[in-house]
Amino acid sequence: MADTKSSMKSLKAYEKIRDMILSGFKLPGTRLILSDLESEFGIGRGPIREALMRLDRSGLVKNIPYKGAIVATPPTQKEIRHIYNIRVDLEASLAVEAMKNLTKADISTLEKLLATMETLPKNHYHYDRQFHNLIYEASNLPHLCQIAQALTLSVESMLNIYKWKKEHCIKFNAEHRELLDAIKLQDHDKVEKAMKNNIQSGLEIIKETYNNLLRIPFE
After folding, report:
1. pTM to 2 decimals?
2. Residue 24: pLDDT band by 50, 70, 90 thresholds?
3. Overall number of domains in the chain
4. What is the mean pLDDT of residues 48-71?
């Protein structure tokens, strides 16, 4: 029972720290001090240490000897391009595999998530990830799902330092609708194309971020 409670606390700490990073509340290079997190969350250091180790494995946090945990530095432009090249093919493949496994209950959940996203909530990103993760998990390819999640977190930790604009969310919603409709039709080619378009849209936002907000052209 004690182990279960500790695991739940560790998961809670993991989610809280992850969300602070992805929302831009904790910027790259920020030290994640155990005592501060302990006071802020009301969770003991043991579960927080476990959460930081898990975040290190995801690429969102780096545990550095003698310095402790810090929010990881974003990937370079060159690395981002490689990451997206891999993501496009991998996540399209997962969606195609998932297509035949998604149940009526899964489709209903996807519809509800999309309906929520269409209201343009402030935490649009979190519903977006739930939408994608539900699809990927239905592929029954857990190891590839873990790879996809790690690649996504490594890029979107930088992407979500900046708030998505309204037009970004509307574009993603339209792409999600196209994807969901293709899944319902069990159309292999349309599912693959819709997922690839959606992943590429993320890269376009990163390019826009570099060009407009960071004042650094994305080569």
Report:
1. 0.73
2. confident
3. 2
4. 89
